[in-house]
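Contributing: when you submit paired examples, paste them exactly as shown. First protein:
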Amino acid sequence: MPNRLETYFARLERTRVWKSIFRSGTGSSTLHNALAIQQNLFLHLFSTKVRKRMVSLSATWYLGTLTLGTFFILVGTGVVLMLYYHPSVPQAYSDVKDLRFVVSSGLFLRNLHRWSAHAMVFLAFAHMFRVFYRGAYRAPREFNWVVGVILLLVTLLLSYTGYLLPWDQLAFWAITVGTNISSAVPLVGDKIRFLLLGGHQVNANALLRFYVLHTVILPLSAVLFLAVHFWRIRKDGGLYVRQSEPGNAENPAQPASEEKKQS
């Protein structure tokens, strides 16, 4: 059976359709592996080679990877929840109640989405604290630090906009308080509040706007900035390791002349 599968895939790789999609081909050499990564739409965001110490647990604690994993869980569970939800004032609360009492495994699905959102916020903060205290925001990584801050804000906005969707008393008054706080911003506060709510009160317009923000605009923004984030990690020399950064006195590969200049 394995030989038949190998023969089938070998024939498939020789077809014109396969070669038009995977132009680098396959092989066991380093060159083939590098070309396969560089010419792939998704894999080209990552480095072709990575030092082992850069992907060790002590280097990153895998906080970025865990944050990305919770985002994928939120996308998957969110798409399924959309099948049972109507962003309208008469129906929204009933749909959420049906998820709890009527839909099979609906309570598990909603709780998985909710706790994954909490975990994503916690992991995003932990990831940024880790980056800050390791000094990984320094040159040449300043731009990627700014992208990370934007991603943190998008994460918080995703959590905040999803808060209104159950349309219960807790959600109603939480959004009321939050939007009133935003109105305190000098000069543009009232305009921000009006833009968020689609009016002067938390009503059907606000629910629809928060739903669109939560399910379309903010997730697409997160995907865009995530792509830029991974691309910049590659362009900045991979994951941050203090000994491997240029201009560092502890870098064993640094020329002796430069060390003398620094001393």
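Second protein:
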Amino acid sequence: MSSLEIRRIHIEAWQTSGMSQAAYCRKHGLNAKTFGNWLRIYRSGREVVRSSALVPVTIKPMSMTANTLRLRGQGDHVLELPSTVSPHWLGELLKCL
């Protein structure tokens, strides 16, 4: 369960509890100021859960002597990596972008 889901669960539980924010936080071991910040963000609608998205990729053949991997993004963005880069590491990097 993500931290955003946990925050939402606590906020909804507090709203139905009939307790003050301070009492709810004491009962559940939460910092009252932190809970207030969660509530402010929740009410403003800025709390967004990022979802995975597919990114279009075009694969172009390169000469066999190429020793770099070149990834081109939109615009002029280019990322060059050694061809020996770990596929696992590259996958983790692409998840972050």
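If you have annotations for the second protein, write them as plain sentences, like these:
The chain has a mean pLDDT of 81.
The chain is about 45% helix and 10% strand.
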